[in-house]
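User: Teach me something about this protein's shape.
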Amino acid sequence: MNHTPTVRRAQAGTTEPAWVKWTLIGIALAFVFLFLILPLAAVFTEALRKGSAAFFEAFLEPDAWSAIRLTLITAAIAVPLNLVFGVAAAWAIAKYEFRGKAFLTTLVDLPFSVSPVVAGLIYVLIFGAQGWFGPWLQAHDIKVIFAVPGIVLATIFVTFPFIARELIPLMQAQGTEEEQAAQVLGASGWQTFWYVTLPNIKWGLIYGVILCNARAMGEFGAVSVVSGHIRGQTNTMPLHVEILYNEYQSVAAFAVASLLALLALVTLVIKSFVEWQFERQEKAAAALPPEPAPALLV
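Assistant: First, the predicted structure itself:
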């Protein structure tokens, strides 16, 4: 009796018939098409509806360039700061045991559970004109809310879990044996980090930075609350798209939105490349023969 189909299904991890597999694949592809590919195609279609001249004209306005520049500046500040925090938090949580470790882990996940709009309101409460530090900031002519510092702070808040959350499980799985061996051999803390820890987490670190940068450039809710929507000054690209669309400048709005979508696609390509490189490195490491055990000295 031929048991090949049964064996194949068992190797695939399921004993369901083939029609179940193809039904699930069809449902998944339908959702991807309806909720991802179709809206993405609609953005580029609407952006080019009046031709390429109208498309590029949307980027010639000073307000559009200001929004693009502010978006890039915000990401350029928020991502490195989150990189430092993410590595420090992941190293502390994964490599050390201390009182309050569970509380720190919960704080890392806090932005995932708090609405970005609420996060923006928190900063208004703290740094606004009627906030806790508002009178002191006004007395020293320091602007946080409705200015670039408030936008950067709000962006940092909503993006700081991404790098830490990529590194924590990776560093926990790797353990502390290699770091302890380096310290036994006389390596300092920085030497241990640069030559032992960092090479082991570099792909997870790059992956987290990519996700953090993508969220920083596309953040809307928290930035909308603290920006004040000042055209040419505090509007990022998502806010600029909203203003253009509300003013019935649909072609210009979709043109700027298509730039955001293009940045998202580039981010996806880089993310896929990083994953491919990581998998290839893992397969190459698994194919290497195990190192012989060192001979004991008598």
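Now, about its shape. The CA atoms of residues 167 and 205 lie 7 Å apart. Residues 293-298 have pLDDT under 50 and may be disordered. If you'd like, I can walk through any region in more detail.
User: That's plenty for now, thanks!
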